[in-house]
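Chapter summary example.
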Amino acid sequence: MAKKLKALAKHDDNLAATIRESANQIWLAGLGAFAKAQAEGQKVFDALVAEGQRVQEETKTAADERIAEIKSRGAGAWDKLEKVFEDRVARALHSLNVPTRKDIDTLSKRVHELTEATNKMLDEKSARKVVAK
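The structure predicted for these 133 residues follows.
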């Protein structure tokens, strides 16, 4: 029995020494990792920032393209709706005999031509009166 106790005690001493040695190695590995992280930390941080900027730019570009695509679709639909509305209003005004802009422009041009012709005739008439005197 005493032999067994001595063997267990010796085994416990070896076990304790092994545990102490493992714990010391774990501690040293942790210190080494911390030192390496401090030395490499700024490089890693800068690399992460650069990667983040690249991803942000790609995402922004993709979002801008998608927004432009949606806007162009919306503009096309809006233009069609506007054209339908204008056509319906024009038909309603035509049925009420309201003149169109083209009709008014044609009349304005004709009035301008008649005014010029009248002024020319008046100038000629005035010139004849002066010659007749």
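To summarize the output: Residues 99-133 form one domain.
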